[in-house]
UniProtKB/TrEMBL annotation:
Species of the source: Ensete ventricosum
Signal peptide: none
GO molecular function: hydrolase activity
Domain Alpha/beta hydrolase fold-3 residues, every copy: 77-295
A matching Pfam family: Abhydrolase_3
Name the record gives this protein: Alpha/beta hydrolase fold-3 domain-containing protein
InterPro entries attached to this UniProt entry: AB_hydrolase_3, AB_hydrolase_fold, Carboxylest/Gibb_receptor
């Protein structure tokens, strides 16, 4: 092996390494599962390539429609996976299994987005892919019957965890600025343990300087040349960031976990949204005694199942 392939030149701690040769090694989230029928939930899935030039691929999910009346329309869930913009895909067992369970519980049509990842594709590549995917959904593609026949594009929900929740916020803001088209409307947002940060430490972050350093190193890894931790891409509450009052939806659910280092940022986002002139309904759901994305790591636990039902209820409550 060439010596250049052994020398690490940059690293996102616990996520990925880049070697002098240019090789990228991801330490987690490399396994994949094929689309298909899931007998445990009755949910079917398939993959669709939206843009061959960027290899933008979506995994679509359809719940068991046995007994459904003809012409019935279902809410459309657009899901953005987490992983610090670095690891995991829409096809990983973590997200494929979670989407099967969520689609079955909520009875929605889901679109899981496999966006490009850093470091090969630093931000804004993930945002651009996520936006292209959302615009594709809003276009009511006639060739995609699961969406055109069953999806209610007047009830689109954007959902994601961690970095994916960051994407949810950015897509909502972009929808205001650029419009979705096709008559589609974003009904609600679900931000699960959102990956937000800021230059001014919160009290919980002051108590854990190692956590701050870890987040800061990841942000520098995915956004080289960043203007800092008050970049609106990671701090939606920074001076000059788009106003939360502009969010184009009626409802927002923010979820946090007690032992998550990102907990304070999710709470601050929720509080700022409540203080703003936004006229929708915001809800905060906190799970005691749990860490970041615990529901993905232990999906069969009682707390994970409770959280799944809470998200499903949010998606179907109007």
């Amino acid at each position: 092996m060439d010596a250049a392939d052994d020398e690490v030149v940059i690293e996102a701690p616990f996520l990925a390494r880049v070697y002098k040769s240019g090789r990228v090694e991801r330490l987690l989230g490399n396994d994949v599962l094929p689309a298909g029928f899931d007998p445990a939930t009755g949910v079917a899935s398939k993959d669709v390539i939206v843009d061959p030039t960027t290899n933008l691929t979506l995994r679509l999910y359809l719940p068991d429609l046995a007994g459904s009346s003809s012409g019935r329309k279902l809410p459309v869930l657009v899901y953005y996976h987490g992983g610090g913009f670095v690891i995991e895909t829409a096809f990983s067992p973590t997200y494929h299994n979670y989407l099967n369970s969520l689609v079955a519980a909520a009875g929605v049509v889901a679109v899981s987005v496999d966006y490009r990842r850093a470091p090969e594709h630093p931000l804004p590549a993930a945002y651009d892919d996520s936006w292209a995917a959302l615009r594709w959904v809003a276009s009511r593609p006639a060739e995609e019957a699961w969406l055109s026949e069953w999806g209610d594009l007047g009830r689109v929900f954007l959902t994601g965890d961690s970095a994916g929740a960051n994407i949810v916020h950015q897509m909502a803001v972009r929808a205001v600025d650029e419009g979705l088209g096709g008559g589609a409307a974003i009904r609600g947002l679900v931000l699960i343990h959102p990956f937000f940060w800021g230059a001014e430490p919160l009290e919980s972050e002051i108590r854990d300087p190692n956590a701050r350093e870890w987040v800061e190193r990841i942000w520098a890894f995915v956004r080289p040349g960043t203007v800092g931790l008050d970049d609106p891409w990671i701090n939606p509450l920074a001076e000059g960031a788009p106003s939360l009052a502009r969010l184009p939806c009626r409802r927002v659910l923010v979820t946090v976990a007690e032992k998550d280092v990102l907990r304070g940022r999710g709470q601050a986002y929720y509080a700022a949204l409540k203080r703003s002139e936004w006229e929708g309904e915001a809800r905060l759901l906190e799970t005691e005694g749990e860490q970041h994305v615990f529901h993905l790591q232990s999906p069969k636990s009682d707390k994970a199942l409770t959280k799944l039902q809470a998200v499903a209820a949010f998606l179907t409550s109007d």
